[in-house]
Amino acid sequence: MFGAALLCFYPYLLSLFPCSNSYDLVRDYSGPSFFNGWDFYGSWDNLTLGDVWWLDYASAIQQNLAYVNEHNRVIIKVDNVTTVPFNEKRNSIRITSQNSYGVGSLWIIDLTHLPHGCSVWPAFWSKGPHWPDNGEIDIIEGVNLMDTNQYALHTLPGCSQPRGVWQTGASGETDCSQPSGCVVSERSPSSFGETFAAAGGGVWAAQFDVAGIFIWFWSRADLPPSILQATATSSIDISGWGPPSASYPASGCDICRFFTAQHLVIDITLCGIWAGLPAVYNPHCLHSGSTGRCYDDNVVGPGSPKYDSAYFEINYVRAYTTGGPAPTSTPSSTLVNPSSISTALSLPAPTNTSFFPTIFVNTSLNPVIGGVDIMSCQFSFWPW
Ligand SMILES: *[C@@H]1O[C@H](CO)[C@@H](O)[C@H](O)[C@H]1NC(C)=O
Ligand SMILES: *[C@@H]1O[C@H](CO)[C@@H](O)[C@H](O)[C@H]1NC(C)=O
Ligand SMILES: *[C@@H]1O[C@H](CO)[C@@H](O)[C@H](O)[C@H]1NC(C)=O
Ligand SMILES: *[C@@H]1O[C@H](CO)[C@@H](O)[C@H](O)[C@H]1NC(C)=O
Predict the structure, then answer these.
(1) Which residue among 6, 222, 243, 317 is buried most deeply as judged by most CB within 10 Å?
(2) Domains in the chain, ordered, with CATH?
């Protein structure tokens, strides 16, 4: 917590800026109301060219691919009941949050099971309205029999991960405009696949800040007190979180230029342009069927037992914000509760930066949106 610790204890700045590592809850998605806040895709996977049909809401509910189980956990799954004929696709789910969350947000997801298996490609990620112009943040993503999670950003050219950042993960490609995005591999062995559920699941947190984008992972046994004590209404203090798994500091990527407010997405596809590429599929899955082809050996035919493990089991998704902003249904602005004076908010971030970003909140009531715009991107500055 080097950056935040400095932010709090550096006496000169302390006198200028309020010290806060606390995020206020904006929205809790959990239990029976979970699916109220999301749109279902209702089309085949025309984005990553997977062999699935992502159902609309009514079909998803009717076919039991999106529901809340007896433990009050949300299940999002691939159809493992239907025998799929050759040339047809298998049903699955892709949902997008109706709200978008601007710079200054924190998202936390707590799960007990992740989809896995040959051909299976799940993700929990975020995106702006235009791709890749408005940025993409991949928080949970993996394919086939991978046993560690992979993080990435996708942007237009000009955004990259600097060398030697403060993180526990292993950096791969650093240019976020490359097809893979700028990639960081999680090192925790229980971060994907069977071992994730065997360890009781875990929690990811993604901080989307002018100072950068930072993602943490904890397996169930390693959860910090702040996560253990968090409720569906409480604020959360991130100051004890230690180094992130993946760090994309603003020194390599002007966050406000490459990212607009983000919608959250949860989806599972099958095969497609990552899981189904022979170079990716073959090493672990070539011999999982008789043809060696992702589609023929998996998607076609009976769904069980091949897809019995292809499901998310989610305790909650929570969205937080610094300084009280609320989400918007339009991607371009963020709201805060009106108050009478202008405030400079300091944003805690786990970066080793020699100076600190601030955002300025325009606290005049906006008559159109009934709230107040945060001028984070217009007014934020970096002194180097
Ligand atoms: C994918 O399909 C949806 C729904 O039919 C459509 O709105 C969208 O434009 C399509 N996207 C692409 C990239 O073809
Ligand atoms: C589908 O998978 C679930 C576990 O995810 C399992 O309980 C169920 O029996 C499977 N369905 C069939 C038809 O085998
Ligand atoms: C912080 O970053 C600066 C510049 O990159 C470097 O010189 C300094 O050693 C770093 N400090 C720590 C504690 O990592
Ligand atoms: C602050 O917000 C008000 C209401 O939306 C707007 O009229 C005003 O121009 C804004 N001020 C700045 C500095 O952007």
Answers:
(1) 317
(2) 23-325 (2.60.120.200)
